[in-house]
UniProtKB/TrEMBL annotation:
Transmembrane segments: none annotated. This is Ribulose-phosphate 3-epimerase. It catalyses: D-ribulose 5-phosphate = D-xylulose 5-phosphate. The active site is at D34, D174. The gene is rpe. A divalent metal cation binds at H32, D34, H65, D174. Binds 1 divalent metal cation per subunit. Keywords: Carbohydrate metabolism, Isomerase, Metal-binding. Belongs to the ribulose-phosphate 3-epimerase family. Catalyzes the reversible epimerization of D-ribulose 5-phosphate to D-xylulose 5-phosphate.
Length: 218
């Protein structure tokens, strides 16, 4: 069963709690939370305060995507705020292995993220240590961008390594996901689909999620 993680970046922030409840009711599996610092990416978004504020409104796991410099400094804050999975970019971690264990020591799941131009070899030596591999299918920073098809062969490679070593981490994609690109990714071995604008721009979130589920199972 494919998991769907609506990215609240495209939600209406004036009624954020209601938006989170709405996608939970619509069948979401995770709530994807995009944290940006204006340094690692050219945009500023959500901090631990917002995460804490929406924690009581849902029981869905919070999938926190840190697009920030020095992520190791903020892990504990996001754990306290209610994160269930924290993913860090290889491009912002000088000591990736150490940061992964800093996350796991907090008793939550750890993920690693790769930008579209970063080769998958960067995570090969930590594959046995992680719970999630997030492959960016756009350059991080904004919602509503176009899917980069070159990432498909990276999914294939990560899936091959996963099967060869009998590993259980989930493969997630993020950026430009709609029913069509979702299908392409799932065919290559993706387990979790992040979708922001595709879900939140549709007034009927249940229909949007259902569209993805139907299309990927065709
Ligand atoms: C991009 C974020 C994504 C974004 C996806 O930097 O990491 O999670 O919200 O938005 P869509 O699905 O609209 O491309
Ligand atoms: Zn994201």
């Amino acid at each position: 069963m494919i998991k769907i993680a609506p990215s609240i970046l495209s939600a209406d922030f004036s009624i954020l709690g209601k938006e989170v409840k709405d996608v939970e009711k619509a069948g979401a599996d995770y709530i994807h939370i995009d944290v940006m610092d204006g340094h690692f990416v050219p945009n500023i978004t959500i901090g631990p305060l917002i995460v804490e504020a929406i924690r009581p409104v849902t029981s869905l796991p919070f999938d926190v995507h840190l697009m920030i410099e020095n992520p190791e400094k903020y892990i504990q804050n996001f754990v306290r705020a209610g994160a269930d999975i924290i993913s860090v970019h290889t491009e912002s971690c000088r000591h990736l292995h150490r940061t992964i264990y800093q996350i796991k020591e907090q008793g939550i799941k750890a993920g690693v993220v790769l930008n579209p131009a970063t080769p998958v070899e960067m995570i090969r030596d930590v594959l046995t240590d992680i719970d999630l591999v997030l492959l960016m299918t756009v350059n991080p920073g904004f919602g509503g961008q176009t899917f980069i098809p070159n990432v498909l062969k990276k999914i294939e490679q990560v899936k091959r390594w996963k099967d060869e070593q009998n590993l259980t981490f989930e493969i997630e994609v993020d950026g430009g996901i709609n029913d069509e690109t979702a299908k392409q990714c799932v065919e290559k071995g993706v387990d979790v689909l992040v979708a922001g604008s595709y879900i939140f721009n549709n007034k009927n979130r249940e229909q949007a999620i259902e569209m993805i589920r139907t299309r990927v199972s065709e």
